Amino acid sequence: MSEAVESLNFIEHIVEEDLKNGYSTQDLRFRFPPEPNGYLHIGHASSICLNFGLGLRYNAPVNLRFDDTNPAKEEQEYVDAIKKDVEWLGFKWDTERYASDYFQQLYDWAIELIKQGKAYVDEQSSEVMAEQKGTPTQPGTNSPFRDRSIEENLAGFQKMKDGEFDEGTHVLRAKIDMSSSNMLMRDPIMYRVLHKVHHRTNTDWCIYPMYDWTHGESDYIEQVSHSFCTLEFAMHRELYDWFLDQVIDVKKLRPKQREFARRNLSHTVVSKRKLLQLVEQNVVTGWDDPRMSTLSGLRRRGYTPESIRNFVETIGIAKRDNLIDVSLLEFHVREHLNKISPRVMGVLDPVKVVITNYPEGEVEWLDTENNPEDSSAGTRQIPFSREIYIEKDDFKEEANRKFFRLKLGGEVRLKSGYIIKAESCTKDTDGNITEIQCTYDPKSKSGSGTEESLRKVKGTLHWVSVAHALQAEVRLYDRLFTDESPDTHKDKDFMEFINPDSLKVITGFLEPSLSGAKPGDRVQFQRLGYFCVDPDSTTEKLVFNKTVGLRDTWAKLQSK
């Protein structure tokens, strides 16, 4: 076996086997089938990359199909957001489809099943039907309506369609096997009554098909060759195939359902219901809050589509569910941003430094590189003056030899600037340092080429000129949950693990080159981390989101 074949994941092996056993590459068609009842999250990224990746690998079409069978929860807003997310990840679909496109065909097939004695109208309550289902070890019992005549069922189904019944009073069930070991085969519901406005069909329908009836038939209509879904649908495969058996034309391609493992991410939840709960209870500001695991939230935070695709490729496709540490995702984000992000200077917790021997009122423009990882990125100029800001943590009155930042009597280099020496400091009545007085060495400017410029000091600090600094709102994000698996505790609600420090809003002082920064721009604040301009940002007020730190500090905190 060739090295290329050996490196395939098990899903690709399935496709390869089918190609060996009679499939043509012309037969291949894949699909990504989201339900438009919420925003896509990081878990969906694996499915998107899998299906569209197969399309690219085999030069096969991929449909984007919205399984829009529940108007009670689905909205056009979600449709638009899903399309935006798929495009943002870098993929293009062949055709845009909707399960609602097939409502008439599905209805016609349901009529045929009734005529064949394979479907019946049931008017019991959902509670009674659930009791009749039995248990995994005990067979179910037949509904008293199971043996209604074909004429009664056709008439009842017509009344369902015409809106003559209230919601929850009548359903159409497939007549399969109430003693099946697979409880999904015990006369599953095919249609229910819903008097809701559908985002595409408006009020044309009062009955809506269930997912299991819709999904496989939609694959068949579209001639999808391989229907890949997550492991929770493995038990549904038998029903998927039974429904296909009722409508299949042997001259047409039969879709094949196969399952892969869901990839859960630590310190997050990826249930749409729970994500919606976070939004509705105002724990977050919306579906695109940068703390959310949604793709729109990750995009707003500054994650790149390349980093997410690289992450998905790294974790691969598996047959067992497992928990992936979010730090692996952050690693890929950090790795990509390191290559593409301009280096700029910003001070987020400032203390003023006055360089006492620098001329008052003088401004000097210093050259500094934009990105040492990209030789084509060039340089820019930053202003230097008598008064600058540095970070409070970068100064101590007294410190040991391992403290390589600024201390009284000690020297540091200012990034792209001069060496300064701390001479004294001023404190307020509470003992807080409010100002540091320094002197500078005029012959030590970076890149000056003088002998003195070769003088080495161990510490280099970032800084900004006070007179030129831009004020910006800076949103510092941390993980939304303190527990790595917040939704797996049987005795606790996932909301109990909300991190109270997941967002801190501060005022930062940035170099003036950022005055033209636009929403979506990504930068590295030197020594602090990677940041992204938020959509809330305006020409009057800059807003930056922290994307990720320069290193995984969370892991260090957890190990202490």
From TrEMBL:
Residues 134-144 have a biased composition (Polar residues). It is found in: Cytoplasm. ATP binds at residues 35-37, 230, 270-272. It catalyses: tRNA(Gln) + L-glutamine + ATP = L-glutaminyl-tRNA(Gln) + AMP + diphosphate. L-glutamine binds at residues 67, 211. Keywords: Aminoacyl-tRNA synthetase, ATP-binding, Cytoplasm, Ligase, Nucleotide-binding, Protein biosynthesis. GO terms for molecular function: ATP binding; glutamine-tRNA ligase activity. Its EC number is 6.1.1.18. It holds the Pfam family tRNA-synt_1c. The keyword Mitochondrion does not apply. Residues 28-338 form the Glutamyl/glutaminyl-tRNA synthetase class Ib catalytic domain. Residues 460-534 form the tRNA synthetases class I (E and Q) anti-codon binding domain. Residues 125-147 are annotated as: Disordered. One of its GO terms (biological process) is glutaminyl-tRNA aminoacylation. Belongs to the class-I aminoacyl-tRNA synthetase family. NCBIfam families: glnS, PRK14703.1. HAMAP family: Gln_tRNA_synth. This is Glutamine--tRNA ligase. The gene is glnS.
